[in-house]
Fold each of these.
Amino acid sequence: MALTLAQIRAKLQAQQAARSGGANNNNGESVVYPHWDIPEGTNARIRFLPDADTNNPYFWVERAMIRLPFQGVKGDPTTKETIVQVPCIEMYEDIDSKYKNACPILAEVRTWFNNPDTEELGRKYWKKRSYIFQGFVRENPLTTDKAPENPIRRFTISPQIFNIIQASLLDPEMDSLPIDYEEGLDFLVKKTSKGGYADYSTSSWARRESPLTQDELDAIEQYGLFNLKDARPNIPTTEELEIIKEMFEASVNGEPYDPTRWGKYYRPFGLVIDNSAGNAGTSSVAPKPTPAPAASVPEKATETVETVNDDADNVNSDTAADEAPTTATSSSTKAQDILAMIRNAKKTA
């Protein structure tokens, strides 16, 4: 059935929102739900949805970013340490095979783990994983959160929470696909603290299955689902890979961030570059709201960098640390097998 004009507009708006990097719109509404801001001791009830990309066997996509610290911003003596995040090309499944191990940072950093003297520095520059999901927020303890007109939100999930999700999928006793519209499960994000860090280790799936409501089904029909890959930074070009390498070397050498050289490629959150006549290359840091006590991770690494917190670096380090160096493990294959088994069981029931 052909879409109405209103539905076409809604889909286009949703697509633009997905590419906006999770930034707030003019009304202060955010596509990305900031679960890291929920008060300690509370729960957020989330219902995950499938990816619009039917070729994705999962209902999430992985994102890998690398943090580059700089000694301030060149030309601005008032700035202190500045962080720029760049995409690791190894996160992209659909790139040419010759680029699979072409990350200019990891190519260097991998060798650092062979020497105890450089291993700690290697971890500093190792890629940080997070996982992008989408779905509905069914119970929201955040009184300050302003939900967008499209109630389908994106979620930037840290490794600690993701490990809980994956472990549950590997449990043979889970007999329903969590994203099933009729017999799916809600996920409860539970925030506590441990050792001075945010802790989500008690998060879990709901005990009972529940169908999507009619309002939720109507929202999916009206707005459509996000293609989760669109929420990742664009695949770096050959030129951008050279810029990433140059920035990495400058960071390791203790140099400041140079907006004239790198500003049009990757920049710190809040950095405004004035390219008007007579001011080319000048920069200033725009006033920023007081951040939540969590790591900032950009949704888009090129053009204007937008960031969202995902707690990836502020949860209990015992459970959140990304292994380095790392390769694909058999657990991801097992997770895919469990998902396939659940789907087949649904078909034959």
Note: Residues 175 and 341 are 9 Å apart (CA to CA).
Amino acid sequence: MVLAIHRTALDRLYGAGAWTRTEIALDAYTTGLHDAGIPWSAIFLDDPRSMDLDLEPAEIGDAIQSIAIVRGEIERTQADALLLIGGPDVVPMPRVPNQLPTLVADLDTEIPTDNLYGCVAGDKATSPSVAIGRIGGAVEDGLDALLDQLDRARAYRAQALAPDGALIVFNEMWGPASAAVAKRIPATPKGFVQTPDEVVSSSGQLQRSILFFNLHGSRNDAGWFGTDSLGNTFRCMGPEVPSGGDLSGVLVFACNCYGCALDGLASDRSIALAMVQAGVRGFVGATGYAFGATGAPGQFAFSEELARMFFDRLDSGHPAGIALCQARQAYAAARVRPDANRAYKTAMQFILLGDPLL
């Protein structure tokens, strides 16, 4: 596994001494990798030559050069997994144009994606062959929040404990598609929360091995919502629900629009980041407006189809990052065509927060 970090960005954003503190946490984390028999290498985006890679350093925020450095290290080591250490302010998140024609609902002009970091020679952007995860969130949450994630990943690798069962939280209108995904989730017993009849009101409801969400999300509201058959919207949960709870070892897949949007958000304005702070093992979600089935019986599409493929591979014993990587490759091969703009966006925008080999 390749670990990518920008030391100068850490010190600039978190304050002098941030890299020194991070290095200590990173040493403990990589000791855990060694103990687990996982080969690893680290690459400094601000000084790749110090790690025997003959490339120019990446300035803070330079996604193009950061990608070149990471790809160079992946090629040098033949790694099959990548961990980006830091939020988008530290390790920039590339953006590609949104290819969709003008739609009333989808106002995104760009698609934030980590895919490009994991593409090696011959890979399409929709189908990176390297599993990618990212540890870190908003600078506003502080350096301790980032270091805690490294420590929890180390601890989880040493002793993989997680709650039992699964919880499926879904919008009434998307019940059939949600049920189709639920059949593939490798955890029992399964509980269901159907909004607007029910809401998630406490972190205790979320203490399951796997959480699957199929709700509405918005770029302008931190909450996740459902609608009834008349189109009335109901708030199902907000960042305050997981905040302060213990979600150690939980794995989350959210089909919601903006389920994993990170731009300008901290844990008090993002359910994804609040769940990360609460200790989830991994969080898979979309960085922008997402797509799904219409709700007709037996239908599932776009994000729900990707979720089904993900859970199938998780059931086969793959870690979350490998499961997402393989699911994305299968989805892109089956669905992405020159005029399949929604499928293209689906393949590009789902990212993993967490260690890809857990």
Note: The chain has a mean pLDDT of 94.
Amino acid sequence: MDVPRQASDLRKRRIRRISYAVAGVAAILAVTLGVSRLKPAPPSVDRAAVWVDTVKQGTMLRQVRGLGTLVPVEIRWIPAATEGRVERIVVLPGSQVKANTVLLQLSNPQLQQEETDARYQLQAAEAEYRQLQASLHSAVLDQKATAAAVSADYREALAQSKSDADLVQKGLVARLDADVSQQKALGLQQRTELEQQRIAAAQSSMAAQLAAQQAKVAQLRAQYELKQSQVADLQVKAGIDGVLQDLPLQVGQWVTSGTTMAKVAQPQQLKAQIKVAETEARDVQLGQPASIDTHNGVIPGHVIRIDPAVQNGTVTVDVALDGALPSGARPDLSVDGTINIETLSNVLYVGRPAFGQADSTVTMFKLIGDGKEAVRVKVELGKTSVNTVQIVRGLNVGDQVILSDMSAQDGADRIRLQ
């Protein structure tokens, strides 16, 4: 049979249920609060995927590196001295050539006709010069002959005047006849002097006329020699011993004056042209030692030129090669260049990280404990090199730091290494 429940039992049971519910809610709140106060677990990073280096103290060699090519020390660009048509290409690029090797043959009929006309004009001027010289020389000779005759008459008259003067004293000749003889001698003396002056004037005029004609001959000779040179330049020669690098012409092509027709270089004498980042090129100086890696050997060298202009964020640096060229070295060969800037003594340094510039402050992960964890620390960098960077503040000798790019963990101050 059913037993009726007491009201007090129902109340106790209800109170017990409420107590359990309140206790459960309080427990949930306590757990939630505890969990919220716990620090998040550090992210894990694969130890094999990061680059770790140890801070050292000692001598640090500052270097800058750049990519470049080998180029000839002497390059001869051969321009067209005159316009003409390409008749024949004698030598193809890649061939060894001498200074007098004919590379190609041009033709220009008009220039050849001008050279012929200039030769005839020069020959005519030279003939005129010889004719004028003979004519003037003959005129001077005639003047000298006249002067000689007058001089002979003067000497005869002078002798007659002296003879008449002696006879006057002896009373054998009248005074009037003696005076006439004397005046005749004086007149011939003055005429002799005038004839001598006329000879000097004729010789001076002869020299002036011959000089004018000679100048005309010299002018025409220079024009003829210029045309000769231009005609000779129709046979395009290498100019230096070396290798023909380029000849961008075709048979039948018309070439205008000044057009580059060929490029000849000396492959035995090469230098390196290195492109250095403009931020690093400020420390490069003339004479600094360098090394050029041709991927088939390393050649020592030194800096001989620094381009004052910046192109595409780089500065071109020329490096003279002080050692022998390895086999396979040739113009336009890609090379790696390293320039020694300076040596820093007794400094802290570490491998160059994937981020951070010279004289800047960065954060890096430093390994702690047994090396299974790393914490973020602030590090002040000094001068940089190709593979190392100076540590000014923030790390000590023996500290191990991660040099890899850790931008994926920018929000974490601690990481775990697995």
Note: The chain has three domains: 47-71+267-417, 81-108+234-265, 109-229.
